[in-house]
Amino acid sequence: MDLEKIKSLLDFVGRSRVSELTVSEAGTTVVIRNPLQPAASGDEPASGGPQASATVAPGEKNEQADDRLVRSAIAGVLHRSASPGAAPLIAVGDPVEIGQALCIVEAMKVFTTVSAPFGGTVKRIFFEDGQDVGFGDPLVEIV
User: Fold this and answer.
1) Which residues pair with 113 in a beta bridge?
2) Can you spell out the DSSP letters for the chain?
3) Which CATH class is domain 3-142?
4) Where are the domains of the chain?
5) What phi and psi values does residue 27 have, to the nearest 5 degrees?
6) Any idea of the CA torsion for 91, 62, 55, 94, to the nearest 10 degrees?
7) What's this model's pTM, rounded to 2 decimal places?
8) Which of 28, 97, 128, 141 could form a disulfide with 123 if both were Cys (CB 3.0 to 4.6 A apart)?
9) What is the mean pLDDT of the chain?
């Protein structure tokens, strides 16, 4: 399975309500889990904590303390800009809209854009450019 196909599958799962996708092709199996959707079995995703942003549909309000956190769906290296030397995609205090690009996660030379699941104002950015992050790590707080 080529990297472009894996990237398109990651993008699909990230934008959909699918909680898990398993694809097998030519002896290779890829399993993609969406931390923004509850698992079909009702189990919590195996991560460092609850995926609070998963419980917030666009336009809804959730009163949990970290319901406005955007978390990493994959482990990788974070990039604040779309290309080297370009301006960061967001800064603290910036207004963001649903679907707006917040940052990019690079994993195995596949670049995945992290988009805002809800609108608001950037309150906090939890990472520096080039920092490694793990699955479920908080990336941005939007209020």
Assistant:
1) 104
2) --HHHHHHHHHHHHHSS-SEEEEEETTEEEEEE-TTS--TTSPPPSSSS--GGGG--TT----STTTTEEE-SS-EEEESBSSTTSPBS--TT-EE-TT-EEEEEEETTEEEEEE-SS-EEEEEE---TT-EE-TT-EEEEE-
3) mainly beta
4) 3-142
5) 80, 0
6) -10
7) 0.55
8) 141
9) 77
